[in-house]
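Q&A FORM
Asked by: J.P.
Topic: structure of DNA-directed RNA polymerase III subunit RPC3

PROVIDED:
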Amino acid sequence: MLVSWPVMEDETTGAGIAEDVKAKFVDLVKTSFLCRVPYPDPDAPASKIPSLILPDDVMYKIPEVKLYLLKQKLAAEASEEPPAKKVKMEDPQGDKQPDEKEYWRVNIDRFDQHLRDQLIVEALSKRMGAKAGSVVRTMLRLSETRCNPKDAFSAPVSRSEIHQFLKQETTVSPQELDSYLSLVADDALGLVRRTDERGGMYSVNLELALRLLAEGVLASIVQDRFGAKSCRIFSHTVPL
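REPLIED BY: S.T.
REPLY: Here is the structure written out as tokens.
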């Protein structure tokens, strides 16, 4: 069920329209920030406790939406009529959306993945510079819908994919890209690795990145509370 919320009015274009609501919804589904809620298995035997299913090919399937019904709903929500009359305004012909019994929820794992990637990029940018951070950000964005948020490594992406994506946001030559890829892949921390013998595919070690970020936060807490000497002792106790 595609739920519409009141859309903020734009001073230049007037009230938000149904097409905008649908487009934003589709963007959120395509980037996995929204996903379907499991539904009762139609083939399961009748039971007081239904068996819920959610096939992979259905989880992010874009629903069919009748835009004219969505427009009526938005118009009714924006009106000052009594609630009973608003219901009639929303659906004067008794027509219903094809996805009326389909429900959606926020994909918490996807938001966790997004925030994790931001922290990794910020940390690498501080260590190696903004352009190196942009390269790693591109690697993570290209792989974000190709792997499970809980995977230890990001999905491998090719040098050509990274270059094509970066060209849309900034001017970077192939030579510059190669230098930054070498910089991040040869760094002693080992956060980025080459995944093929020819060196044209790259992946981010997400498990290692999260461990290093956690260690950095703990070290900062120890230093603030107990001083620099205690922080050095703490650093030596952390396993390599």
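FOLLOW-UP: Confidence is low (pLDDT under 50) at residues 3-15.
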